[in-house]
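User: quick one, sequence for these tokens?
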């Protein structure tokens, strides 16, 4: 029987990381799973319900403000929203530039705008960014004024910025810039979330053994990615459980003094590149 007094965990994007996070954090909570793909969404719901989790499935288009507002409202009707995790994203091999900007850039900005309206005091959110955002910073892919614009431009004007003009970007560059934007927008959003008594952080995974990660490894850039792994401190792929563990920490009271920052969970790839 569902617990009417349970808090609510919202997981946006139910791929490998999303499901791992729901499993890690969902016991004893009402879990709202949200995704654009109904087939994947319902399969994840059935799987988790079969294992005893209290799950509600919601179709969402993260690139549409009205869809994100409806998701937040539906979650709030189930109980106090204490934890929100945004994992939805498209990789360079999955989609063209414009779709990547709509999902990976605009979608995160809409989540950061929408969920402070329903987050409960003491709650927290996590955005899954990428080590590609650190690569963009490391190689100065954005001018300082462009980073500031990506951090602070109102969401409804975000895709009009010259630095994210689709015709000027290939999918790989668009992905890196979107993920850097995730990191800096989380920084900028920390005060807004803090005004609601909540925290917001991002996690930048490295190369993770999810279906998306395996697809990237099989692409033209796979050899470069494998070289990055072999040159890292850990020398291995990450797992969805690695990301779920970091997420659990950032959403817990152990991280009560951590907000507006990015946690790099990449097995040491960026450290090796920087060194």
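Assistant:
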């Amino acid at each position: 029987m569902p617990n009417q007094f349970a808090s609510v965990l919202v997981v946006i994007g139910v791929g490998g990381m999303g499901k791992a996070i729901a499993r890690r954090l969902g016991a004893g909570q009402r879990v709202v799973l949200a995704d654009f793909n109904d087939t994947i969404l319902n399969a994840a719901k059935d799987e988790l319900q079969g294992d005893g989790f209290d799950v509600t499935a919601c179709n969402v288009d993260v690139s549409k403000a009205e869809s994100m507002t409806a998701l937040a409202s539906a979650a709030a009707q189930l109980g106090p929203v204490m934890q929100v995790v945004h994992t939805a994203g498209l990789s360079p091999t999955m989609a063209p530039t414009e779709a990547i900007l709509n999902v990976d850039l605009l979608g995160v900005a809409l989540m950061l705008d929408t969920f402070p309206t329903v987050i409960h005091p003491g709650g927290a959110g996590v955005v899954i960014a990428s080590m590609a955002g650190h690569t963009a910073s490391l190689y100065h892919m954005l001018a300082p004024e462009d980073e500031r614009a990506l951090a602070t431009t109102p969401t409804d004007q975000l895709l009009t910025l010259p630095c994210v003009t689709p015709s000027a970007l290939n999918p790989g560059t668009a992905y890196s810039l979107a993920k850097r934007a995730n990191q800096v927008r989380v920084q900028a959003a920390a005060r807004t979330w803090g005004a609601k008594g909540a925290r917001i952080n991002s996690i930048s995974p490295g190369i993770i053994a999810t279906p998306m990660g395996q697809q990237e490894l099989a692409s033209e850039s796979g050899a470069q990615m494998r070289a990055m792994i072999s040159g890292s401190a850990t020398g291995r792929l990450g797992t969805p459980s690695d990301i779920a563990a970091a997420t659990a920490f950032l959403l817990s009271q152990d991280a009560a003094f951590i907000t507006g920052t990015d946690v790099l969970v990449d097995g040491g790839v960026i450290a090796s590149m920087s060194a």
